[in-house]
Write a structure and sequence with these properties.
- With 376 residues, this protein is an alpha+beta fold.
- Strands 3, 4, 5, 6, 7, 8, 9, 10, 11, 12, 13, 14, 15 and 16 form a 14-stranded antiparallel sheet that branches. The protein has a two-stranded antiparallel ribbon with strand order 1-2.
- A hairpin with a 2-residue loop joins strand 6 and strand 7.
- The chain starts with a strand and ends with a helix.
- The mean pLDDT is 80.
- This is DUF620 domain-containing protein.
């Protein structure tokens, strides 16, 4: 991945460090030679202005990329993860399904390095690259092949246990910044402001794709085991976790209501590792005319599954370095025909560092305009 950009203003000056490293494929697509590619990159970096987004064509392009990044690149998990130094729950009065799940989680902790290794991690920085492709919305439930064109990009992910995190995700000229400062979560795009997420701070879904084993263990410690399934020739236990109604109500807003959000984890019986992470969410967006006219609103159902690969040890912790995520989005309601859209993301972790020196809480503060709105 490209991390440095030449200094075009001063020939013998120091190179500029890119805020988000970009994959080689994205860099190659910017021109026919190296000099032209860097010039196009510099031009793009200087052109991030509101005037640029006023063009209908460019605005439509940015809205499409923002949709992809919000749905695939930076969704949140509905449950707040509590990081206990000793992940243990009593099983005396638990059901067989719940006690089995707790045993599976303990096996997972051992497979990812053990409790001591996981407790030694206090912060993290991960650099990775993604490729995202998507179909258009189409009517009915038939399967439609995802477009062959791919949007390539990169990301930088910072975390400080457990509720402090920040993601910068750049793809094909569109950037999304998501974060949590332990009190609120937010998401911001290049061309528009996205409201702060409702409810308590929640983890980024990307953490639960094999990158943060301690959060994964704490998430599933209160799950139940509902059976077994073969995933990629691996016999796996299935753990299921339903979001409580009270948590859904807190996260719902004035214009939308989250009806359900369910999470599944598939843990290998052979290795103990998480090999697939899946969740499904249904929400309804109220009609713009409100409820007085009897409008039923629009229902959005999102089903996401991530297949996780390439576990490697980093400082004694076994984390996943690659995988693929599949997303299906259904939209229906307001007397309209069902519409369906399918998306794919291939991701790869290039670099991971634990216990980053000097990473303070101030690093995770929300953007200044959001701070003014929510802290005054």
């Amino acid at each position: 991945m490209r991390k440095l950009c030449p200094n075009f203003d001063q020939e013998d000056g120091l190179e500029t460090v890119l805020e988000v490293p970009i994959p080689e494929e994205m860099f190659t697509s910017m021109g026919s030679n190296v000099a032209l590619r860097w010039q196009n990159m510099a031009t793009w970096m200087k052109a991030q202005t509101p005037e640029k987004w006023s063009s209908p064509i460019i605005a439509g392009r940015y809205n499409e990329l923002s949709f992809l990044l919000h749905i695939v690149g930076s969704p949140l998990i509905p449950l707040q993860v509590q990081l206990d130094h000793s992940i243990h729950r009593p099983i005396k009065h638990s059901s067989i399904e719940a006690s089995t799940a707790k045993y599976i989680v303990q096996q997972y902790i051992a497979a990812t390095g053990g409790q001591a290794a996981l407790n030694s991690v206090h912060s993290m920085c991960a650099i990775g690259q993604v490729k995202i492709s998507a179909s258009d919305f189409h009517q009915g439930d038939e399967s439609v092949k995802v477009r062959s064109t791919e949007e390539a990009g990169g990301f930088v992910l910072w975390q400080k246990n457990p509720d402090l995190w920040c993601l910068e995700l750049l793809i094909s000229g569109c950037k999304v910044i998501s974060g949590s400062n332990g009190k609120i979560s937010w998401r911001q795009s290049s061309n528009l402001q996205i409201p702060i997420a409702e409810g308590p701070p929640r983890p980024l879904r990307r953490f639960l794709q094999g990158l943060d084993p301690r959060s994964t263990a704490n998430l599933f410690i209160d799950a139940v085991c509902i059976g077994e399934k073969i995933i990629k020739d691996e016999d796996c236990f299935i753990l299921k976790l339903d979001t409580s109604q009270s948590a859904l109500e807190v996260q719902s807003g004035s214009r939308y209501e989250i009806i359900h959000h369910t999470i599944w984890g598939y843990f290998s019986q052979r290795s103990g590792l998480l090999v697939k992470f899946e969740d499904s969410r249904l929400l309804t967006v109220k009609s713009i005319h409100g409820d007085d006219d009897g409008g039923e609103g629009v229902f959005w159902e999102t089903s996401t599954e991530s297949v996780i690969d390439e576990y490697k040890y980093v400082d004694g912790v076994n984390i996943a370095h690659s995988g693929k995520t599949f997303v299906t989005v259904y939209r229906y309601g307001e007397q309209s025909t069902n519409h369906k859209r399918e998306l794919e993301e291939t991701w790869k972790i290039e670099e991971v560092d634990f216990n980053v020196w000097g990473l303070s809480s101030e690093f995770f503060m929300p953007p200044s305009d959001l701070k003014r709105e929510y802290y005054t």
